[in-house]
Amino acid sequence: MDLSNYLLLKPELSLLAVFSLLMLYDLFASDKAKKYYFPIACTLFLVHTVVCFFFQDAGSSFAGMYVTGTAQITIKCILNIGVFIIFLQANEWLSKPESVLKRGEFFLLTLLTLMGMYLMISSGNFLLFYIGLETASLPIAALVAFDKFFHHSAEAGAKFIFNAIFSSAITIFGLSFVYGACGTLYYTDLTTSISASPLIIMGMIFLLSGLCFKISLVPFHLWAADTYQGAPTNVTLYLSTISKGAAVFALMVILYTVFPILAEIWKQMFWLLILLTITIGNLFAIRQKNMKRFLAFSSISQAGYIMLSAFTGTAQGMGATMYYIFVYIFSNAAAFGVISAIENKTGKVNMTDYNGLYKTNPKLSLAMMIAMFSLGGIPPTAGFFSKLFVFMAAMEQGQVVIVFLALLNTVISLYYYLLVVKAMFITPNNTPIETVQTDKYLKTSLVISLAGIVVIGLISCFYEYISTTGFGIIKIG
Questions:
Q1: Residue 367 CB neighbour total at 10 angstroms
Q2: Interatomic CA distance for residues 196 and 304, integer angstroms
Q3: CA angle at residue 229 from 163 to 85, to 5 degrees?
Q4: Is pLDDT larger for residue 403 or for residue 80?
Q5: Which of 241-258 are b and which e, b meaning 16 or more Cβ less than 10 Å from the residue's Cβ?
Q6: Burial status of residue 283 (CB atoms within 10 A of its CB: 0-12, 13-18, 19 or more)
Q7: Domain ranges of the chain
Q8: Angle (deg, nearest 10), helices 37-52 and 103-122
Q9: Which residues pair with 466 in a beta bridge?
Q10: What is the pLDDT of residues 301-339, one digit of tens each?
Q11: pLDDT tens-place string over residues 80-114
């Protein structure tokens, strides 16, 4: 094995260095020194996030198993930004007596899942893809059950691990069909070997179904609401943004690298899945009173919008997908940041608890309102342009009907997002939630998230379309 193969793995090696340093610090630091674990961990990961922007390598390693380029590096940078925001929001939760001793475990498990997602994103072989998939999934199960002494967290962890095992089994079952028919697991070799035989079509369906579990597309979404509600809020944010973004990108690469010859088959399948996901996600979100379940069904609907651009198969569609993931991370982080701040101080997570919130917490109410506007696609927030670019990418491929139906669903989504705004600013409440004081880390995360929503939205006002991605996250074309 030539050591030059590792030269392209700079993001992975950088993340591994952060992981190793934090693990050694957690193992050998004194109790007094461990008080500084959180700021040190955030600083190290911030350095890793910034450094990753300077990695511009393109090529393949290990005989084509590992592939990197502009798109792969960009999506990794986007995920890094999201993880950094999640780390900032976790301080108050990790400072609680039941969590403070497991602070190091939270960071290490999260970095381990991120490493798995890196491998999924850069895989050029289904073996590496599956290793990355499992590396990303198993630590997430531990994170979901992190508050193991609370019934809901333990239950959510059990549900997640069972669904993860089931979806992984379906995925590997489908891969066995594809490997049996073609005799290879390399993406580039499969492109020339794939045919429309019943065995390969069945293998493709099983493989894509397993990935749909990870993205929580309907009808593979039933685990999401219970898991999101029971998991710690910061882990729920990770599941709804980082995990989903990495899985969508990996799925998009597989569709257009491995199965382009079967595009007519899987496009029909995803046409129906996207429509069901957007519609059912919206309809069930209207019925929710718990804010975490509410955002769970919202994230299911958002997954449908992301896939709407991903399945177009064009450079425009890829640019729209990355832009949507980027904006969605900021929007969801702002919403969950407010939920986390209120939950940590009061334990309240129901929508009715937010009645009259503006009276006592105007800043948090404003942050939540901007997040809801962005998730609903109200201009001039960045969320409006993310949906606009998705619709433009789909329209260019002649997907008029599904774009029209998605637009109708956007109106439905505006209704339930504005229910939260109505509760905070209009619904009367004689005993609103008391004034909530947040720490500097959570405040910083909210500032970053809101700045991302507003600034990206304002920048997008001056451009017609975000096409491909580059050094500055987005490249205008």
A1: 22
A2: 26
A3: 100
A4: 80
A5: bbbbbbbbbbbbbbbbeb
A6: middle
A7: 3-476
A8: 10
A9: 476
A10: 988 888 888 777 777 778 888 889 999 999 999 999 999
A11: 999 999 999 988 888 877 665 677 889 999 999 99
